[in-house]
């Protein structure tokens, strides 16, 4: 029987939820590996709603679980119901929702708080020595919760290709080891069973982002 992998989403859309291409790539690659994805999201309000045409917040209110259900085609559960015992691994795609709805990283950086439910889930998988896959901005969750862990969010020198490279510096300030990797590469922290890749932290063609996520998923399933 295939591995059962929890996928935690943070809404629907890059600027206020989960990055849809990253979430989709995770689900496609899990399917390719013969793994069964079980999708979860917290039943909470989004920090705010962003108009993705204008790139600006609106007055709307949306729920993270309801929005995430769009990506999961309705096959989703409340994160509060996640039971680590029946699952083999955890993957959290990126998108600003990770920094806005799963934590306060977007507004507080290294001084952020990770939401209680998300922190409990990450600690439960870590304590059970089950692998955790993180891409794009979601490695910041591990940086905050597991001091001294090894991660990648791509490169630590800002340029046109790496517009969010300052994130790597902040992770180092939290006492983590940041490892520079290209978008198609992953970093594996064997001790903590953490597998990370940069995804859209890099200004790269979408197929390269897709390939990097594929390697992350493959390694998570292998470690499970």
UniProtKB/TrEMBL annotation:
InterPro entries: Class_I_gatase-like (IPR029062), ElbB (IPR026041)
Protein name as catalogued: GAL3A protein
Organism: Chionis minor
Gene behind the chain: Gatd3a_1
């Amino acid at each position: 029987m295939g591995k059962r992998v929890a996928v935690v989403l943070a809404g629907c859309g890059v600027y206020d939820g989960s990055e849809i291409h990253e979430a989709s790539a995770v689900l496609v690659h899990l399917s390719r590996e013969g793994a069964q994805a079980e999708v979860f999201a917290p039943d909470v309000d989004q920090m705010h709603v962003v108009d993705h045409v204008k790139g600006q917040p609106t007055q709307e209110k949306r729920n993270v679980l309801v929005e995430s259900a769009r990506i999961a085609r309705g096959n989703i559960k409340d994160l509060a119901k996640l039971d680590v015992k029946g699952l083999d691994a955890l993957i959290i795609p990126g998108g600003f929702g990770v920094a806005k709805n799963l934590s306060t990283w977007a507004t507080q950086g290294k001084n952020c708080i990770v939401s209680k439910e998300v922190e409990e889930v990450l600690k439960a998988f870590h304590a059970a020595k089950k692998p955790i896959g993180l891409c794009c901005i979601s490695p910041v969750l591990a940086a905050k919760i597991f001091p001294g862990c090894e991660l990648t969010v791509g490169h630590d020198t800002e340029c046109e290709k790496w517009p969010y490279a300052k994130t790597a510096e902040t992770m180092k300030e939290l006492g983590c080891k940041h490892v520079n990797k290209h978008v198609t590469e992953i970093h594996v922290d064997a001790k903590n069973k953490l597998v990370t890749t940069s995804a859209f932290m890099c200004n790269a063609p979408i197929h390269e982002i897709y390939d990097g996520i594929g390697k992350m998923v493959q390694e998570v399933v292998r470690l499970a």
